[in-house]
Amino acid sequence: MQPDSRFSTAAPAIALDKVELSLGSGAARVHILKGISLNIGQGEAVGLVGPSGSGKSSLLMVLAGLEQSDGGSVVVAGQQLAGLDEDSLARFRGRHVGIVFQAFHLIPTMTALENVAVPLELAGRADAFERARAELTQVGLGHRLDHYPSQLSGGEQQRVAVARALAPEPAILVADEPTGNLDETTGQQIMELIFSAQARRGATLVIVTHDLALARRCDRTVRLRSGQIEESALIGGDAAGDAA
Ligand SMILES: Nc1ncnc2c1ncn2[C@@H]1O[C@H](COP(=O)(O)OP(=O)(O)OP(=O)(O)O)[C@@H](O)[C@H]1O
Ligand SMILES: [Mg+2]
Question: What distance separates the 2 farthest-apart alpha carbons in the chain?
């Protein structure tokens, strides 16, 4: 595996080795990820691309600790996730990973402020509401703190979701088509927020997208096909021989 020289000085933020994933039961069981090996450096931004059904969301779920692989090794932020139980995975996510989904996934009965603050409170942060307010102000929603998700536009809801993901200051940010439900201008604003927060905090970013222009803003694109890495290419550089 050829490490990317720009990111190889420290241990990788994400190290996947021969990762396997099958989901569903009986006749509906699908072999989704087939031997994925991939290192992602600290502070690196990777665009995960590939056809529909190629396993992009599934791979994101595995490295975010939302889905347990059933083969291979998944080391994220120095922790081996393979074999962890649900409680340990939840603790791992709370400490290390911020997640943004296409469909926002806000809690409808909580205000914007509560959506961001409650996970911080659960993680034991005494300054949960203060931090949440600061984070929402940072994404331009300081004037919408007490609105419920149904009272916010799609772009505003995604801003809340971005604030929620960023508030615990995670080392790793993952986003699954975060602009997929938004118009182009709003989507670009969301991307600016995600990329600028990533750069400012030196976080590692893995973003699934169908938008090639967006993928090109990353340091590297990784292309999946049928559950395998087809290509791993540095942006503005040569194709890296990183795909196992
Ligand atoms: N819970 C599940 N049970 C069975 N099969 C599943 C499950 N989740 C996903 N799959 C299958 O795994 C394959 C990969 O799905 P995945 O959602 O990872 O693809 P994707 O690359 O994100 O596609 P898209 O671009 O359409 O979002 C698909 O064929 C899908 O049908
Ligand atoms: Mg998907």
Answer: 51
Strand order in the sheet with 30-40: 30-40, 14-23, 71-76, 79-80
Structure-token pair, residue 74: 């998944």
CB atoms within 10 A of CB 214: 20
For residue 61, the ligand 1 atom closest to its alpha carbon is: 18
- Ligand 1 pocket: which of 20, 22, 29, 30 to mutate (most atoms within 8 A of CB): 30
Phi, psi of 33 (to 5 degrees): -105, 130
Q: Is 119 in the pocket of ligand 1 (CB under 6 A)?
A: no
Residues 217, 34, 239: CA angle, nearest 5 degrees: 35
Domains, the chain, with CATH or none: 43-62+85-240 (3.40.50.300)
Query: Could you report the per-residue pLDDT of 55-93, keeping only the tens digit for each?
Result: 999 999 999 999 999 999 999 999 999 999 999 999 999
pTM value is 0.91
Contacts of 224 (CB under 8 A, 6+ apart): 48, 49, 50, 54, 55, 56, 59, 230
Query: Whose Cα sits closest to atom 26 in ligand 1?
Result: 52
- Residue owning the nearest CA to atom 4 of ligand 1: 24
Neighbours of 132 (CB within 10 A): 27
